[in-house]
Amino acid sequence: MSRFRFQRKLVQLEEAQQAVLHYINMQKTEDVALADCFGRRLAMTVTANHPVPHFRRSGVDGYALQASGTNGASADQEIKLDVTEMIPCGSIPSMQVGQGQAARIMTGAVVPDGADSVIMIEMTEVLPDHQVHIRKQMAVGDNITPIGEEVEPGDILMLPGRTIRSGEAAVLATFGFARVSVFRKPRVAIFSTGSELLEVDSPLAPGKIRNSNSYMLAAQVIEAGGEPVIMPVLPDDPAEVERALLQVLEQVDLVVTTGGVSVGDKDVLVDLFERWDGELLFNKIAMRPGSPTSVGYWRGKLLFALSGNPGASFVGFELLVRPYIKGIMGQTEKLHAETKAYLQTDYSKGSAYPRYVRGTLKMQDGKVYVNPAGKDKSSIMTSIKDADCLIYIPAGGKGAARDDLVRVLLLNEPICSL
Ligand SMILES: Nc1nc2c(c(=O)[nH]1)N[C@H]1C(S)=C(S)[C@@H](COP(=O)(O)OP(=O)(O)OC[C@H]3O[C@@H](n4cnc5c(N)ncnc54)[C@H](O)[C@@H]3O)O[C@H]1N2
Ligand code: MOO
Ligand SMILES: [Mg+2]
Q1: How many whole angstroms separate alpha carbon 277 and alpha carbon 300?
Q2: How far is the CA of 18 from the centre of ligand 2 (A)?
Q3: For the chain, which has fewer Cβ within 10 Å, the N-terminal or C-terminal residue?
Q4: pLDDT at residue number 3
Q5: pLDDT tier at 89, thresholds 50, 70, 90
């Protein structure tokens, strides 16, 4: 019987996370067409190269004029002005607006020199002979967006690591980034181990189950910004596992395995760790689910050996693999954002380790509540789909009580920084 099966060094989760983050090796970058970079991680700092707007911009369809010439104007006391020209969007005014004059102007067009306000068309009446009635007293600046109101040149708008979503795409387009520098997606090899595992399209057979972890993990890799490489299922055969892992190691940026990390006779990853030329960072974490989660560093790559139980696999990925993937793509906030929420039910637990319970958040009357997403045993798979957070139940056998304010880790990434 092997040494590691009975001599495991227990680490706290924070220690395990720091050990993993120590190996951050930044991804290379690539230039991608703007329309193709949605969901990618920005690899550059985006600084405003011009003000927004870069000209005095009309906020309404109406008439550009001098506010001082509208004193006393109202529905009952109209003031007559001469219309100099019509300024559509995209063209340059051809003349200044002087006293007694107004220029017809469209929303988004350049306000002509001399004008200091724009009156909405609804407050005017077109007269014959290029004249207009003004029915409202205007103040200087009304309906004009000054140069640089939204963005000043040199403003830092986005930092590396940021996920490119709709708002980021709009910023990049505004400042002329037809191609965008993004981090290359890390290629993540995913291996499920276990002689009980069937391919998804296989009929069920006695004692066998379909491999769900590989597809769950592939989705998690994509959400984290990586590119999953789903490998064929590995049998509980140590030599075959070693050969398959070695074969792929050079072609990917990291490897994730599930299963075979506990103390069973067929726990093949444990066998590998005893004979390999890699370094085992840890092989037991004080947490549930996923206490046997192990991570090693092998020939320049991290190998995350997650527990086979689906709940443990999911949580292990979130707490260890996702922070690493975020780190190699420049994100400064690598760990999950947290909040506190009121637990809506008693939660008792058996193990003395802290527990990360799959949870569902609910907002009601300005308060945040949380419930377990369903059954939470490590072997339970169906509650994963209903989880938008992990509820932290602290160490000790006590669990938590209804109405306790508990720590909650958010699974959906909020926008944390520039
Ligand atoms: N005597 C002990 N037994 C166990 C201990 C222990 O301390 N002493 N720890 C338990 C804990 S906690 C966990 S977690 C599991 C970890 O097991 P492994 O990581 O070795 O995983 P396997 O044994 O390979 O599988 C466990 C379970 O998960 C199913 N599985 C595996 N792969 C997949 C997959 N790709 N898709 C769906 N389901 C999968 C597998 O069939 C097993 O039912 O060990 C406990 N035991
Ligand atoms: O550490 Mo295990 O995942 O609780 O069953
Ligand atoms: Mg096992």
Answers
A1: 11
A2: 21
A3: N
A4: 46
A5: very high
Task: Tell me which residue has tokens 């909650």.
Answer: 408
Rounded Cα distance, 39 and 227, in Å = 12
SS3 53: coil
- In sequence order, the 6+-apart residues with CB closer than 8 A to the CB of 23 are 297, 302, 324
The two tokens of residue 400 are: 């938590």
DSSP code at position 320: I
C-alpha 234/C-alpha 229 separation (Å) is 14
Name the nearest CA neighbour of 297 among 283, 311, 285.
283
Which distant-in-sequence residues (6+ apart) come within 8 Å of 97 by Cβ?
64, 65, 66, 84, 103, 112, 113, 114, 115
Which has the closest alpha carbon to 390: 406, 414, 368, 379?
406
Residue type, 23: Y
Q: Residue length, the chain?
A: 418
What are the pocket residues of ligand 2 if the criterion is a CB atom closer than 6 Å to any ligand atom? 288-292, 307, 309, 312, 378
Half-sphere exposure of 334 (CA within 13 A, CB side): 20
CA distance 192 to 147: 58
Q: Which residue has the tokens 């495991």?
A: 8
**pTM passes above 0.90:** yes
Q: For 28-185, where are the alpha helices, taking DSSP H only?
A: 166-174
Ligand nearest to the CA of 214: 1
Q: What is the pLDDT of residues 268-289, one digit of tens each?
A: 999 999 999 999 999 999 999 9
ipTM over 0.90: yes
Q: What element of type H or E holds 244?
A: helix 238-249
Buried b / exposed e over 234-248, threshold 16 CB at 10 Å, is bbbebeebbebbeeb
On whether the CB atoms of residues 309 and 291 are closer than 8 A, the answer is no
